[in-house]
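R.M. (postdoc): so does anyone remember the format we settled on? I'll just put the structure tokens first.
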């Protein structure tokens, strides 16, 4: 059921609804890519993109902390089908990336396909209708920029009308989720008392409060991940904070940013001109970055050759650290785990900023807060408190505090959260995952019992060394191979087989055991508390491209329409005739009955005749 066009069904009736052939969830880079490919590759524009936030760009719309930037060269952090030759720097800031994504939407005519301030709450498969029923909430403008937790608190305090103005039920033939992994910020830790007494401001870096003046304020920063490394250097220099204390649990591996051809200044001055005017130059830069990042794949293995390579890189990084930061931080910033275990930080500002006397780095844990101060310690989280030879402070100290900034990451293991999805027989995705050991999807894209449902950048698709946009494009390629026959009316439903999905997840987890990510000494947000790694992909990105470009069709349960079944049988017949004709023809050639030229002519006539007959039969059926 369901047609090829957006339409109203029983619009006069109170139970009427809008039907969309394809619904895309999220207006970040994943669904922007899918929307572009639907229009360009399939010539299809009967879809809608629903976005909870008030703007286009996903993570690049919502993350507005000082210094937010891409840590992958922009030549690679952009769509292969829509390159930007005008990047102003090799590693552009967040606003420029958001502008690029919006320009892509303009170019491909997606803007009128995107419905902002609309939260997709539930998706339920209707077996009888062979459609997805979707519950939408039309939000108060701007409320979608809050986290799920903050919206829930707002409803609790002010009522539902403070968050959404209406709810709507729609239906769709195909649903594609572009719900990102870095969506829901972690909330205040329950283990740290005193939050209610604090008279200052507390906020997460992913929801930066630009209305809060940091000048002459004592600021506490919790976390030393990629975001913190980008914004902390701005706090004392640009925002004029009186003091900044950065609380670190364990040290990250910090990698100096690659210097582009011509150097940073030279690239900014001449890079755009070269990309616009020298044929092939932009592609050369992109492919060079691709090759360089893919070469880093050998960092993640556990074979002796991988360990040797990793050790050589680690030595260079430690030398860089010791040459850049004050000596008092050398021990504190020397990781005790292998490079690649956690997400690396590409940095050229945080290490130099640690020389600022107004900035203090500590591994004494935040243990409590009061009205105008915080208490750190007693003890330390790194190095091991049992190491009595360590010179890293482990006492207890109370510091003045006006503002606390959380940079403690995201709820990365709650995939698709807070979306509630119900498949065949009323089964829900978390139930399947709990039964099978943890979050998983075949190729990060599909799950059995959820027909015509695809995810872009689902579980086990992050690589740790390359561009997320490339991975997203690969998943779009895979999904489109199954969406196309559905939209053409040849297929009713597509669903990955249970045995294929289970085998896929088992193979992934087995392969991960041979990587640095699952090393016993590696603790990271890639894994759950139980040790299930639902984040990283255990093979190279080339491997992922191959799997997405050339799918294993036998892993899928495809229910054809009568039209599609006839076309499939006709195609099989043509292939059979062609194979038979080839065998017969070469047998004749072997006997010397025909010359090679006459053989080819006869074969061409037979193929043309078979093709014409098949096309006439198909035309009569359509």
């Amino acid at each position: 059921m369901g047609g090829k066009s957006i339409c109203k069904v029983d619009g006069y009736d109170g139970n009427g609804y809008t039907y969309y052939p394809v619904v895309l969830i999220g207006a970040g880079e994943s669904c922007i890519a899918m929307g572009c490919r639907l229009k360009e590759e399939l010539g299809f524009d009967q879809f809608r993109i629903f976005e909870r936030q008030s703007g286009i760009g996903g993570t690049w719309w919502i993350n507005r902390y000082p210094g937010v930037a891409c840590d992958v060269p922009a030549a690679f952090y952009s769509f292969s089908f829509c390159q930007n030759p005008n990047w102003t720097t090799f590693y552009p800031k967040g606003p420029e990336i958001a502008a690029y994504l919006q320009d892509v939407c303009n170019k491909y005519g997606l803007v009128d396909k995107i419905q902002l301030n609309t939260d997709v709450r539930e998706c339920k498969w209707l077996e009888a209708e062979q459609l997805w029923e979707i519950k939408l909430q039309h939000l108060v403008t701007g409320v979608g920029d809050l986290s799920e937790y903050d919206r829930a608190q707002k409803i609790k305090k002010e009522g539902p009308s403070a968050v959404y103005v209406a709810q709507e039920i729609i239906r769709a033939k195909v649903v594609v989720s572009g719900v990102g992994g870095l969506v829901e910020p972690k909330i205040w830790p329950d283990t740290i008392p005193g939050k209610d007494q604090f008279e200052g401001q507390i906020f997460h870096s992913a929801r930066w409060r630009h209305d809060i003046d940091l000048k002459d304020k004592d600021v506490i920063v919790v976390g030393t991940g990629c975001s913190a490394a980008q914004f902390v250097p701005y706090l004392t220099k640009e925002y004029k904070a009186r003091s900044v204390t950065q609380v670190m649990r364990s040290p990250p591996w910090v990698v100096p940013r690659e210097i582009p051809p011509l150097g940073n200044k030279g690239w900014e001055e001449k890079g755009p001109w070269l990309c616009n005017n020298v044929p092939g130059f932009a592609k050369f830069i992109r492919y060079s970055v691709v090759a360089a990042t893919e070469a880093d794949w050998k960092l993640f293995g556990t074979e002796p050759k991988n360990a040797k390579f990793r050790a050589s890189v680690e030595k260079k990084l430690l030398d860089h650290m010791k040459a850049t930061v004050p000596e008092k931080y050398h021990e504190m910033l020397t990781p005790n785990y292998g490079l690649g275990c956690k997400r690396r930080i590409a940095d050229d500002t945080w290490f130099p900023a640690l020389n600022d006397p107004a900035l203090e780095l500590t591994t004494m844990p935040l243990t409590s807060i009061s009205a105008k101060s915080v208490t750190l310690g007693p003890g330390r989280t790194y190095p091991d408190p049992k190491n009595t030879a360590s010179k890293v402070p482990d006492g207890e100290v109370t510091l003045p505090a006006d503002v606390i900034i959380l940079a403690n990451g995201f709820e990365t293991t709650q995939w698709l959260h807070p979306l509630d999805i119900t498949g065949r027989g009323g089964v829900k995705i978390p139930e399947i995952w709990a039964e099978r050991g943890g979050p998983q999807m075949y190729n990060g894209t599909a799950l059995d019992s959820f027909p015509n449902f695809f995810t872009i950048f689902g579980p086990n698709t992050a690589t740790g060394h390359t561009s997320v946009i490339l991975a997203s494009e690969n998943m779009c390629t895979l999904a489109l191979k199954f969406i196309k026959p559905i939209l053409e009316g040849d297929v009713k439903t597509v669903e990955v087989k249970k045995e294929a999905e289970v085998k896929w997840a088992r193979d992934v987890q087995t392969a991960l055991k041979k990587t640095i990510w699952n090393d016993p000494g590696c603790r990271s947000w890639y894994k759950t508390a139980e040790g299930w790694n639902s984040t990283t992909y255990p093979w190279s990105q080339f491997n992922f491209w191959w799997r997405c470009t050339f799918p294993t069709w036998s892993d899928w349960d495809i229910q054809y329409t009568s039209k599609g079944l006839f076309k499939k049988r006709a195609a099989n017949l043509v292939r059979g005739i062609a194979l038979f004709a080839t065998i017969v023809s070469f047998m004749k050639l072997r006997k010397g009955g025909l010359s090679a030229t006459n053989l080819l002519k006869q074969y061409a006539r037979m193929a043309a005749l078979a093709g014409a007959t098949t096309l006439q039969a198909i035309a009569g059926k359509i």
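R.M.: ...and that's the designed sequence above, right after the tokens. Also worth knowing: Residues 618-622 have pLDDT under 50 and may be disordered. The first helix runs from residue 29 to 41.
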